Fold each of these.
Amino acid sequence: MTASLDLFRQINNAVLDLQSSDLQSYAAHLKRLGRLLQHPDLETSNATLTQNLDLDSFIKASEATQGGMVGSATLQWPEDDLQILGLKLLLILRFSENPEFMTTIGYQFFYTGSRKIMSGVHAITSQIIIPFVRDYKDYVEAQGRISPSLVLPMSNKVFIVHGHDGESRETVARFLGNIGFDPIILHEQANKGRTIIEKVEANADVGFAVVLLTPDDLGRAKGDSDLEPRARQNVLLELGYFMARLGRDKVCALRKGDVSIPSDFAGVVWEAMDEAGAWKQNLARELGAAGHAVDWNKVMR
């Protein structure tokens, strides 16, 4: 039995929220993550993964490594990958039941000289929880079977599909560049005698696409009298191309103003490109859900 993609999307979102949390919010995000990991669809996988594992013994053995300096203790992970995954699951579930326990573990095993409670929480999130969710998803989708395979790293290139709104295009490109991605804008790439679609294909080796739906054209259905703002036809063509090439989960549209959304577009994420800038957090969240590493400190600047 394989859990739904929507469930793992919610798990990824909970981790992203935890990654950017503060002292007032981390416990709520942690408890939500624990509830999601105990979803009925995951019950069989969890039972198999944690069979015969003793979390308390693992913690006790790890605490015994404590030397004379705070934070010198090391977690004593076993050699078996499945046992490591199972212990991480039990540890995260214990955190969700008792968020203060997470701060204790952070102080004991991830102390870096900072007295801030959240430094330990964020260290555990980046070093234990994020790798766990990645490997756990693979485990569940493989129905418990793990075999080594070559996985190419995800490209940090993001193709920007746009119309005539140059200001929006440059704003999105600057934001992507500031948070560590490589924005690809078609007219900035060499032509090399190619047609537009050939040029799109040649630059489609990207890990994500952002489509700007801006009101550049006016149109109407036959028989209607009122014109409505629409995105340019090339934008809709390239939208469909990247949906097919990358998958719908790796395409995010930013809708600016009152622009008509195609009815067949219902299955793709789109966000309002608001003047307040909330679209930046929403786009970063979609990038994270698609598997990209997102530095939330840069996003929130």
Amino acid sequence: MKYYTLKRRYFDFGTYSYLFRQDGSKVCCMVERPMLNNKASRSCIVEGVYDLLPHQSPKFGSCYALESQELGVTREGPSLRTHILIHKANSPKELQGCLAPGVDFGFVHGEWSVVNSSAAFNLLMKELGGEPTQLTIMKD
């Protein structure tokens, strides 16, 4: 199994991170909603260890979902948070508690965002290869 670490920085307007492989090499950057006390569909999820699982979303197609029974995050529920996905998006306002990869950080429509999310997402999907992995989310 592969292991990844997401190292975050929190801001009032969003959460911005880098995703690293187990060997410490960088995979991509990520954007999420700001930390709003883990409110469903409005906040990034809490720090911790998650299973990163292949998922078929009706809205986003083939993607990955995060799960941690201990942290109250499951794909289907019942739980505190459901359907926390990694999918294409550029800015925090385009997300409802999910994570979006990018090749770099920048401004999109005057908002701090990730850029070229489609390219980063495709590279990440290829790297993960449809296999379950483990993701540790922590403050940078």
